[in-house]
Design goal:
Elements (H helix, E strand, L loop, with lengths): L4 E9 L4 H16 L4 E8 L6 E8 L2 H10 L1 H10 L3 E10 L4
Helix pairs in contact: 1-3
Length: 99
């Protein structure tokens, strides 16, 4: 049994700020992929709703994801400077692979 850990996060941009949020979210992808314990970090935009962005993350452990979320400079910067373009976070699921 491994400690692999998955995250699904869905965020909505404030109306009219879709492009701004897209760029701010894109800016965290490359440094997040370099975070210790990261195995997968992808950003998607819903095709029929450009306000909706989806992160699919795969981490080596819950501790690695927690460190990424609470200690990495790029996430801290987004929380301080970029999150104002977010209307709401729809879901934030922490998951383990079953099959």
């Amino acid at each position: 049994m491994t400690d692999d850990f998955y995250v699904l996060a869905i965020l909505y941009a404030k109306t009219g700020r879709e492009a701004e949020l897209r760029e701010k979210l894109r800016a965290v992808v490359a440094p997040s992929r370099r975070d210790a314990g990261n195995l997968r970090y992808e950003l998607f935009e819903q095709q029929d709703d450009p306000r909706r962005f989806v992160f699919v993350e795969h981490w080596g452990s819950p501790a690695a994801q927690e460190a990424h979320h609470t200690q990495s400079d790029h996430i801290r910067h987004f929380q301080e400077e970029g999150s104002d373009a977010v209307e709401r976070m729809e879901v934030f699921y922490r998951m383990k692979l079953v099959a």
